[in-house]
Design a protein that fits this description.
The protein is built from 9 helices and 11 strands. α1 runs parallel beside α5 and α5 packs parallel to α7.
C-alpha cells in the first residue's frame, strides 16, 4: 500500500490474486464460485482436499480474522463442510495475540506470504517435489511458518540424497569405464562417498528405481531377473542449486 500508493481494497485484491495463483501452482483447485469481495470467501480450494483461505494484506493480521473466516466459511460452505476443511490465513503481517488464540481454538493455520513464496519456489525448481497430502500434516493450528520450513527442509534433504546418488553413478561409471553398474557395487561405493544418510541396499534400490522412472529420467535401468541383478546407468544430472 505505502510503496505503490494503493488503496486498502486494491492492495487486498492484488494480494488475494497472488495467493490464488500460488495455491493453483502448488496443485490446489481453486473454485471460482466462492470468489472474494464483500461477503465472499477469499479462496476455497476443493481438491485435493477442501481448503478455506483468508488473505490479509496489511502489516497486522487483525483480531477478527478467524471470526470472519468462520462466518463466511459457514455461510458459503455449510457448517459441516467448513469444519471438515483445512483452514488457512495468509498475510505478510504479524497476527495479533487474540488472532493467535482464536486460531488455536478453531484449528486455523497462519503463514506469512514469504512462506507461501518458498513453497512456490521449491515447486518451480522441482515440479514433483511437493506432496499436498504430506504438506497437510504440517498445517497445524496457529502460526506455523516454522512447520512449513521443516517440511521444505525434509523435501530438500530427499532431493539432496537423490542428487548424491545420481552423481555417484555418473562418477563411478566414468572412473571404471563401465557402461552400467549393479546395486551391490553401487551400495559399496555409496558408503565411501561421504553419504548424506545411511541406506540399506533395498532402500537404495527403491530410490534408483524412482530415479530411472520415465517420469524422472535421471538414470537408465536394465531390468534383471530380481532386484539384485538390476543394473543402472547415468542419463542426466540432478542439480540442487
Amino acid at each position: 500500500e505505502l510503496e505503490e500508493k494503493k488503496s486498502n481494497y486494491q492492495a487486498g485484491t492484488d494480494f488475494e490474486y497472488i495467493a490464488r495463483r500460488s495455491l493453483e501452482f502448488l496443485g490446489f483447485k481453486v473454485e471460482e464460485d466462492y470468489k472474494g469481495g464483500a461477503g465472499g470467501l477469499d479462496l476455497f480450494c476443493s481438491k485435493p482436499y477442501p481448503l478455506v483461505c483468508e488473505c490479509k494484506a496489511g502489516k497486522l493480521i487483525p483480531s477478527g480474522t478467524v471470526q470472519e473466516l468462520i462466518k463466511l466459511g459457514g455461510m458459503h460452505l455449510g457448517a459441516g463442510q467448513f469444519l471438515n476443511s483445512t483452514k488457512l490465513v495468509v498475510g505478510p503481517g504479524n497476527p495479533s495475540t487474540d488472532m493467535l488464540k482464536a486460531a488455536k481454538e478453531w484449528k486455523v493455520s497462519i503463514i506469512n506470504a514469504m512462506t507461501l513464496q518458498k513453497l512456490v519456489q521449491l515447486k518451480a525448481k522441482y515440479p514433483g517435489a511437493i506432496n499436498l497430502f504430506e504438506l497437510k500434516q504440517y498445517l497445524e493450528s496457529g502460526e506455523i511458518n516454522y512447520k512449513i520450513d521443516e517440511y521444505i527442509e525434509k523435501v530438500e534433504k530427499k532431493i539432496s540424497l537423490r542428487s548424491h546418488l545420481v552423481n555417484l553413478i555418473k562418477n563411478y561409471l566414468e572412473n571404471t569405464g563401465l557402461d552400467n553398474a549393479g546395486v551391490d557395487s553401487l551400495h559399496g561405493v555409496y558408503f565411501g562417498s561421504n553419504p548424506p544418510q545411511s541406506l540399506k541396499s533395498e532402500e537404495m534400490h527403491e530410490i534408483l528405481i524412482e530415479l530411472s522412472s520415465p517420469l524422472t529420467g535421471f538414470l537408465g535401468r536394465i531390468k534383471g531377473s530380481d532386484w539384485k541383478s538390476d543394473r543402472f546407468y547415468f542419463l542426466r544430472d540432478l542439480p540442487t542449486h
